[in-house]
Amino acid sequence: MRPNKHHTSPKKLEDIPPKKVFNVPEGYFDTLPGIIQAKAIESTKPAFIQQPGMALKWALPLVLLVLIAGYYGFKLNQTMPNNDTKIAKMLDEVSTSELVAYIEETDLTTDEILEVVSFEDDNLEDFTYDVNDLSDQELDLIMDDILIEDITDI
Question: How many CA atoms lie less than 13 Å away from 110 in the CB half-sphere?
Fold first, then answer.
């Protein structure tokens, strides 16, 4: 075997000369204990650890709050009158003669009125009249209207 020039026989520790490999700033060891204590105190503070039950702890009350608010909002909406009932109440306050006068003054045709009016929820029997219940004067007016319409259509 040939001898390796990098590998020599074991030396004693005392025989190795000391080398300054690392440079330490001045006063470093004077401030080191304070730095270590500050980091030790920071590490003892409780860290926020997300637990699986933590999300449920906050989500469940939030969901309940939304459900309760939705329920009361729905109930409030049901108890408040909608536009149809408001209009119906307003029309109840107006007399029939005033309504007839308004319709005659505005030149509305029967077709235009029927386009707007919905008879889905109403009983149509309430809108029909028995000819026997009409007075002679009312019958004469109706007949005059029919005769005038027939003449104008020709």
Answer: 1
